């Protein structure tokens, strides 16, 4: 399978258990790429894709998700495109991977994992948080990180990018839906 979006440059490794990577795409955009052979399994890609699409349908500020082709050449020529697990270094797999658009151009804006409560009145889309809670409860999201915040250098306010991590949807202890995802 091929896709129109190609990874053309590795920027840096991201933190987190899936050991995703920030990459530049052939569209000149920045994408967080999760690989099919990530340490948390291929299932996390399906979780991220599905929950992000549902959040977008609910009108939440969700990152665009897309398939991205990562070439064998890029993997071979980028020593950082590896996973570290149990003392081993494993190369990322080439081929079609899951990409989530990075919330801002790293050269133009700033991303924060945390904002102090004193800045909450400067979040320009704070009204989305209750809808995010509904999505989290409905999907039994067991992941603790719910948002990142971005600010373009020319603006005073912050934009929340909600429910940014869906690795653990439909696995939470409160699900009990009998959905077959092992959440009972």
Q: Descriptors for this entry?
A:
184 residues, alpha+beta, 2 domains, five-stranded antiparallel sheet, three-stranded antiparallel sheet, 3 helices, globular
Whole-number radius of gyration? 17 Å
Strand order of the largest sheet: 1-2-3-7-4
How many individual domains?
Answer: 2
What structural category do the secondary elements indicate?
A: alpha+beta
In whole angstroms, how far apart are the ends?
35 Å
Q: Indicate the proportion of strand residues.
A: 25-35%
Task: Report the principal-axis shape.
Answer: globular
Count every helix, treating DSSP H or I runs of 4 or more residues as helices. Answer: 3
**Sheet of most strands:** 5 strands, antiparallel
Mean pLDDT: 81
Instruction: Give me the count of strands.
Output: 10
Q: Which percent bin holds the helix content?
A: 10-25%
Order of helices and strands: EEEHEHEEEEHEE
Provide the low-confidence segments as ranges: 172-184
Describe the protein.
It is a single chain. The chain has 184 residues and is α+β, with helices and mostly antiparallel strands. It has two domains: 7-101; 109-162, no CATH class. The chain contains three helices and ten strands; from the N terminus they run βββαβαββββαββ. A five-stranded antiparallel beta sheet has the order 1-2-3-7-4. Strands 8-9-10 form a three-stranded antiparallel beta sheet, with no helix packed on it. A hairpin with a 7-residue loop joins strand 1 (7-13) and strand 2. Mean pLDDT is 81; it is low at 172-184.
